[in-house]
Write a structure and sequence with these properties.
Arc Repressor Mutant, subunit A; Rna Polymerase Sigma Factor, Chain: A; globular; mainly alpha; 2 domains
């Protein structure tokens, strides 16, 4: 847990406090970045950009909720900004692509190692991967996602359902290979 004292020192631009905060959060936030891209160098760039934003905006943190959660949101928002800026959305959110949400028979996120899960998530098509990460991993509501990405809540739900189905299939294939 990040201490309030450390946050206050960072807000005063204390370099040693900022280094300490970086050490405490870097691996967690890097994992967030890796869930949104397959390219390690891109994840590293996003992490550095996120820390710049965290340090520039740390005075806006109001000490409600966990600082880690706040920093994660800053990181995700930074990633979304970069994706929008680089126009990497393409036609991922085709309205014709929206179908009824499929009920997953099993949780694709349960009963597997972290590295396997990260590998499976990285295999998702970009749009599904982003929405899956935002909803399932980061905890954004469908409404928040729809507002941030400019798509309907129905599309968000459908993309998460499709992502879960893909993850279930990848998990089944992985288990057959291991058996």
């Amino acid at each position: 847990m990040i201490s309030d004292d450390l946050i206050r020192k960072c807000a005063k631009n204390d370099a040693s406090a900022q280094r300490e905060l970086y050490k405490l959060l870097a691996s967690e936030l890097f994992a967030v970045c890796l869930r949104y891209t397959k390219i390690r160098a891109e994840a590293e760039d996003w992490l550095q950009d996120a820390f710049v934003k965290i340090f520039l905006n740390i005075k806006k943190y109001n000490f409600e909720g966990s600082f880690e959660g706040w920093a994660r949101r800053v990181t995700v928002n930074n990633i979304l900004t970069e994706l929008r800026k680089n126009k990497r959305w393409g036609n991922v959110f085709d309205v014709d692509d929206v179908i009824d949400e499929v009920k997953a028979e099993e949780s694709a996120t349960g009963k597997m190692e972290y590295d396997d899960m990260l590998s499976f998530i990285q295999q998702l098509p970009e749009g599904k991967r982003i929405i899956f990460n935002m909803h399932v991993i980061e905890g954004f509501s469908y409404k928040e996602i729809s507002e941030l990405l400019g798509i309907s809540e129905v599309t968000c739900r459908a993309q998460v359902a499709k992502a879960k189905n893909i993850l279930i299939e990848l998990h089944k294939k992985h288990n057959k290979i291991k058996a």
